[in-house]
Amino acid sequence: MPADLITARLDLALRVGASRLSGPDARHEAEHLLLHVLGRDRAWLFAHGDDPLPEREAAAFDALLGRRIAGEPLAYLLGRRGFWTLDLQVSPATLIPRPETERLVELALERLPEARALRVADLGTGSGAIALALASERPLAQVVATDLSEDALRLARSNAHAHGLANVVFRRGSWLAPLAGERFDLIASNPPYIADGDPHLVQGDLRFEPPTALSSGADGLDAIREIVAAAPAHLLPGGWLLLEHGWDQGEAIRALLAGSDFIDVATVADLEERDRVTLGRVTEAQDASR
Ligand code: GLN
Predict the structure, then answer these.
(1) Residue whose CB lies within 8 A of the most ligand 1 atoms, among 89, 101, 122, for a mutation test
(2) Residue 37 CA, ligand 1 centroid: distance in Å
(3) CA 101 – ligand 1 centroid, Å
(4) Which residues are CB-neighbours of 65 under 8 A, at least 6 positions away?
(5) Which domains does the chain have, with CATH numbers?
(6) Is 149 in the pocket of ligand 1 (CB under 6 A)?
(7) Which of 74, 113, 169, 232 has its CA 20 to 30 A from that of 181?
(8) Residue whose CA lies nearest to ligand 1 atom number 7
(9) How confident is the model at residue 259 (pLDDT cuts 50, 70, 90)?
(10) pTM over 0.90
(11) What is the pLDDT of residues 59-104, one digit of tens each?
(12) How far is the CA of 213 from the centre of ligand 1 (A)?
């Protein structure tokens, strides 16, 4: 039993937790974990710093601190992560949504006029982050989200439900396979793009995330090659494809898009000025036979 926690007042327990975690975010993370255990918010804690931490909650807080120290991502311990304007449930069945992916959402929204009924697809939706952000900003759009993982789809559906987003449907399957015979105004994806065996896969949060959401072949581009090859047949004339990728993959992906009939191909950097999203569109005068 954590002796330094069970007898503590909440404000002291928070200090103990922060000192155990160490690092720049220690205080903030300890607070999130304590609030999670208590089922309270910050305002409540602020007013109740003198309250004692009950024994059961002390044990639960202690256990979460131990798991965080062992490296488990905060988002998995809390079961939640904010993305765009949405509070999303996350689980080890899905990638934890990243702030970088909000750049992809912005670029997609710039290409999705508000006043029109549009068709949008999100491939490998995971927690539903991209699909739900787009669905929330474009209520007239019909969004189709695919994923190979039934567990991921269950979570994504639950996130859609929690946010009252009825304009998204979820389909199980690989990339564009569940979209046979359908065309879209815009297809977006944050697919796995890390090379198999990359040393980053055994560091930090990535150790705990699903490998299939992270890595994709010897150069990391297997999923992207598959998506780029199949996308033109699923785009309406002038339709856009947007792909998130690693900082050093822009050139290779621009070449893939250019070689697959895309025009206006460009790579856009994220807030840290690293190449992050490559996009292109098919021509207006599209060959109806493909
Ligand atoms: N589309 C989800 C996200 O951006 C999942 C991405 C993935 O698993 N590679 O968070």
Answers:
(1) 101
(2) 27
(3) 8
(4) 17, 20, 21, 30, 33
(5) 3-70 (1.10.8.10), 80-288 (3.40.50.150)
(6) no
(7) 113
(8) 213
(9) very high
(10) yes
(11) 999 999 999 999 999 999 999 999 999 999 999 999 999 999 999 9
(12) 7
